[in-house]
Amino acid sequence: MKFPRQYGLKEIAGIIKCEYIGDDDFPVQGMNEIHVVTPGDIVFVDHPKYYDKALKSAATIVLINKKVECPEGKALLISDDPFRDFNKLTSHFKPFEASNKMIAEDAEIGENTILQPNVVLGSNVKIGKNCLIHSSVNVGKDCVIGDNVIIHSGTVLGGDAFYYKKRAEGFDKLLSGGRVVVKDNVEIGANCTIDRGVTGDTIIGEGSKLDNLIQIGHDTVIGKKCLIASQVGIAGAVRVEDEVTIWGQVGIRSDVTIAKGTVLMAQCGVSKDTEPNTTYWGTPFGEVRTKLKEYAAIKKLPEIVKTFK
């Protein structure tokens, strides 16, 4: 998430009322999660296990809960609760806006695009040319849809990220200020849910086709010309490269990469990165021919056991 203008470090510290280490006018241009930070961004860290990763990241401002040595060329925001203060910044720069119309006044709708009844478009939504948005689709604030896109009934673009911090009193929600971006020539089936990024973008790549009843988590990027069948669940911050096929009821854990040309057979449970142009099956998943040999061997176990009697 980039801010509307460049801020000084002192200004940002004033918003969240915290100490800071660095020049008053040290440039702050935005805020992001660690996997998408760039110079000028704030990243937050609240556990010693991840201090080093945050301090060495591309982010030049680190919101941290301990006074540490500040790396050269960077600045620190010292907070007793970085999670809380990251939320304060999201609320400040991307506040919730209640809708009072089905189609927000500042929504942009391209030539020859058709909106069926009961479509809801939030503020600053942009939809390209020659799209067909079926009834009861909900497109949240700031989301972007390209040209020649079809979205079927009941789909929600831009729901909040499923991202919580466990505290003694319950679960504290990390607020979402990112977007969903749908590229050209995509089709999305009925009753799909695609969550917005926490600070960045959840992206559906050009020419990809999604079946019904699919969940895609925050900050996940789907590549070009992917096919995703019904009841697939993809967690947050997953990278699905181009020309991947994912069959029904596959589950993919967060922060993995599905390499180009991968095929995931039905009901795979994907827990780690895949190799390009390889077919996988099973839970725990593995290369399909290897898994079939394993199952064939398991069938022989009763006969093998008899030999020991």
TrEMBL record:
Residues 25-90 form the UDP-3-O-[3-hydroxymyristoyl] glucosamine N-acyltransferase non-repeat region domain. The keyword Lipid biosynthesis applies. It comes from the Bacteria. The keyword Acyltransferase applies. Keywords: Acyltransferase, Lipid A biosynthesis, Lipid biosynthesis, Lipid metabolism, Repeat, Transferase. Coiled coil: none annotated. One of its GO terms (biological process) is lipid A biosynthetic process. One of its GO terms (cellular component) is membrane. GO terms for molecular function: N-acyltransferase activity. This is UDP-3-O-(3-hydroxymyristoyl)glucosamine N-acyltransferase. It comes from Christiangramia fulva.
